[in-house]
Amino acid sequence: MKNLTDASKEEQRKFLNSFDYVLSDMDGVIWTKYQVHKGAVDCMNTLKALGKCVHYVTNNSVANSEELAAILRLNKFDAKDGDVTNPQLTVIDHLKTINFQGILYALVTENFREQIRKAGFNIAPIPDYPIEESVEALTRKLQDDPNVKGVLIGIDLNSTFLKLQKALTYLKRDDCIFLTSGSDMVIPLGSVGPIIGTGHFANMISSISNRKPTNISKPSVLSCVHVNRKLGIRTPDRVLFIGDSVSQDMQMATMGGYQKLLVFSGHAQIKDVENWTYPEEWKPQYYIQDLNALYNVIKSLDLL
After folding, report:
1. Which of 6, 40, 210, 217 could bridge 30 with an S-S bond, Cβ 3.0-4.6 Å?
2. Residues 12 and 124 in one domain
3. Residue 7's domain is classified under what CATH number?
4. Which residues are the active-site ones (predicted)?
């Protein structure tokens, strides 16, 4: 691992010529709560001007990919609708790939549920809330529906005890698949964060049901397959993944066989590099403070 800023001009130039695709996380890398980080727009637009295919891979499933692309454009990023991949897209792609039949019980945002409906899948109703606080009332709400063939656990800002308990009802059946659209344990949210990540809910349901979920989001092989197919990537070693999380982004890059650049504008800090406690294969080739520092490196090389 090496600070890219400290590398020689020759090494920096060699690094920038070593990839054709840039996959970048969003939260913690280009912005926090949609507040754009200094230098992020110039950096990403310059990489695109250099001929790199720039694509954003995020676990943000509160907004759909078109909405995220619109926010990018609003902030002067050179981006079109197809330039963002989030769990909404990867989950729908997976459901189509496995020819999912039946009803899906989805503990996600209403925006996410609507995208799944638009893709032609049926969504199970959410239990009414609140309910009478009695065992009898709870029992009535936990009756099984054999037509529900899948449970999806993701970010649900209106999560309740009853919703989670209902997921366990369906997962008692072996013919009900278990999916998760995020494994983040915490999600940065500026000064009011972090907030509880999907990983905690998925792990709780997994532990009680004794069922292991299939993760369709970052980091997962399925997410890599989706992105590779979408962008036509045939040489993963010519792909650079930029991320702020070792456990999410650097692991994802390892799964995909991509090059790695770790930034310190979100989750990770310099101490994570100096006192490495993660698997060796997750180590990035380079790290850098943020995208502004990367932009300064690119500018200094006079590549345009």
Report:
1. 40
2. no
3. 3.40.50.1000
4. 25, 27
Flag whether 244 is marked binding. yes
Q: Which of 274, 77, 61 is nearest to 156 (CA)?
A: 61
Instruction: Give the separation between CA 154 and CA 300, rounded to whole angstroms.
Output: 42
How far apart CA 73 and CA 48 sit, in angstroms, is: 14
Domain boundaries, position 225: 2-86+220-270+278-300
What pLDDT is stored for residue 73 in this prediction? 98
**Which element (helix H / strand E) includes 291?**
helix 291-300
pTM listed for this prediction: 0.93
CB atoms within 10 A of CB 212: 10
Counted domains in the chain: 2
3-state secondary structure of 266: coil
77 and 103 fall within a common domain: no
Q: Does one domain contain both 197 and 239? A: no
Pairing of strands 214-215, 177-180: parallel
CA distance 87 to 66: 13
Clarify whether residues 186 and 102 are in a common domain.
yes
Q: Has 218 been labeled as part of a binding site?
A: yes
Active site residues: 25, 27
Chain segment 228-260, per-residue pLDDT in tens: 999 999 999 999 999 999 999 999 999 999 999
